[in-house]
């Protein structure tokens, strides 16, 4: 890769044992600095990919999405992922909207998270083969991180992962990208006991799972009683400098109209370590987790495909029976 700064030129070499590499771009300052790959590659604001790739783009309102897919990736449904990003962009009119959002697809496993977004950046790295049924939620989750343009107080740090998890599940199930059963399964992961509370969590598992449950409980109350949603809370926090718990309480009390008891109840959910009961769509608390886990592996797209296949099969069988019946009647008449 050649970062070029007139009149001199400097070359930066990345060591790797494959024909590609995804890495952070080197620091470069000054309007005359331009980064360009020595051979094949795509360079964003903070992340670069070196190697052969395919580029897919889509414009959604004032935003443009770019998906950089290495030739060595196993990903095959780029258009489907772009469709999910478009759905999320339209469903979440909140936070800071970057003019360009880039997703670098990684052929290498990224661990349990499956993807990441550098803090306050417009670029994401996402593994190209997430677990079955998780792709939609994962891509929307990382997109939500690009909208979070606020830096919270320490006690509210759980909100980064908690809101990304909950909003990705909500958007995915509302637009048919995952099934209600899958939504229930993922949300129920936060109903268990953890060894810490949300106020002490940063990006630990409790922030993802229990944080999503707290927001789901709050969202149900906001929708049924006040005709509001958690999306409004995210908008409010984006307009506050260094928001903390007191800003959440103030928004619930002064903007939403929730009484003091209701607002403090939300704070107690955050501060306690009690087992929570998320508002589920289909399943009840007695549904075995292994069964929910099995159903969660089936994406909504797969369900629609199976239903369509059965529909076609039914038509074929019906037409064949009708043809045979018609032929039998013709033989009897003769």
What does this structure look like?
The chain is 45% helix and 15% strand. The chain is built from ten helices and eleven strands. Residues 3-7 and 302-310 have low confidence and may be disordered.
Output the keywords.
334 residues; alpha+beta
Write the topology of this structure.
Blueprint: E1 2-5, E2 8-9, E3 21-24, E4 33-36, E5 41-43, E6 47-50, E7 53-60, E8 63-70, H1 78-91, E9 100-106, E10 115-116, E11 123-127, H2 135-147, H3 159-174, H4 180-188, H5 205-226, H6 230-238, H7 245-256, H8 260-271, H9 289-296, H10 300-333
Parallel strand pairs: 8-9, 9-11
Antiparallel strand pairs: 1-2, 1-4, 3-6, 5-6, 7-8, 10-11
Summarize the structure.
The protein has helices at residues 78-91, 135-147, 159-174, 180-188, 205-226, 230-238, 245-256, 260-271, 289-296, 300-333, and strands at residues 2-5, 8-9, 21-24, 33-36, 41-43, 47-50, 53-60, 63-70, 100-106, 115-116, 123-127.
If you compute it from the alpha carbons, what radius of gyration comes out, rounded to the nearest whole angstrom? 24 Å
**What is the averaged pLDDT score?**
83
* Biggest sheet details: 5 strands, mixed
Shape designation? globular
Order of secondary-structure elements: EEEEEEEEHEEEHHHHHHHHH
What share of the residues does DSSP label as strand, in percent? 15-25%
Low-confidence stretches: 3-7, 302-310
Q: Indicate the percent of residues in helices.
A: 40-55%
In which order are the strands of the major sheet placed?
7-8-9-11-10
Distance between the termini: 83 Å
What's the number of helices?
A: 10
Structural class by helix and strand composition: alpha+beta
User: What's the total number of strands?
Assistant: 11
């Amino acid at each position: 890769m050649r970062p070029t700064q007139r009149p001199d030129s400097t070359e930066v070499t990345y060591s790797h044992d494959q024909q590609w590499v995804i890495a952070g771009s080197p620091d470069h300052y000054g309007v005359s600095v331009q980064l360009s790959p020595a051979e094949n590659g795509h360079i964003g604001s903070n992340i670069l990919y070196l190697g052969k790739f395919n580029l897919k783009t889509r414009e959604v309102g004032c935003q443009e999405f770019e998906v950089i897919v290495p030739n060595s990736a196993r990903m095959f449904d780029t258009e489907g992922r772009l469709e999910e990003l478009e759905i999320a962009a339209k469903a979440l009119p909140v936070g800071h909207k970057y003019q360009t959002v880039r997703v670098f697809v990684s052929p290498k496993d990224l661990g349990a998270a499956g993807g990441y977004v550098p803090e306050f950046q417009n670029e994401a790295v996402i593994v190209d083969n997430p677990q079955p049924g998780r792709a939609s939620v994962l891509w929307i989750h990382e997109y939500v991180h690009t909208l979070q343009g606020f830096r919270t107080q320490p006690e509210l740090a759980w909100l980064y992962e908690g809101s990304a998890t909950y909003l990705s599940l909500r958007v995915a199930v509302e637009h048919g990208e995952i099934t209600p059963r899958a939504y229930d399964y993922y949300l129920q992961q936060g109903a268990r006991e953890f060894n810490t509370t949300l106020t002490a969590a940063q990006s630990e598992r409790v922030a993802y799972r229990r944080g999503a449950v707290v927001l789901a409980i709050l969202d149900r109350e906001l929708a049924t009683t006040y005709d509001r949603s958690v999306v409004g809370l995210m908008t409010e926090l984006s307009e506050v400098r260094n928001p903390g718990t007191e800003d959440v309480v103030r928004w619930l009390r002064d903007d939403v109209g929730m009484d003091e008891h209701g607002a403090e109840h939300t704070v107690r959910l955050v501060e306690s370590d009690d087992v929570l009961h998320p508002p589920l769509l289909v399943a009840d608390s007695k549904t075995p987790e292994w069964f929910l886990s099995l159903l969660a592996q089936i994406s909504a797209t797969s369900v629609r495909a199976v239903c369509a296949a059965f529909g076609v099969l039914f038509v074929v069988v019906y037409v064949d029976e009708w043809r045979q019946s018609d032929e039998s009647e013709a033989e009897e008449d003769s």
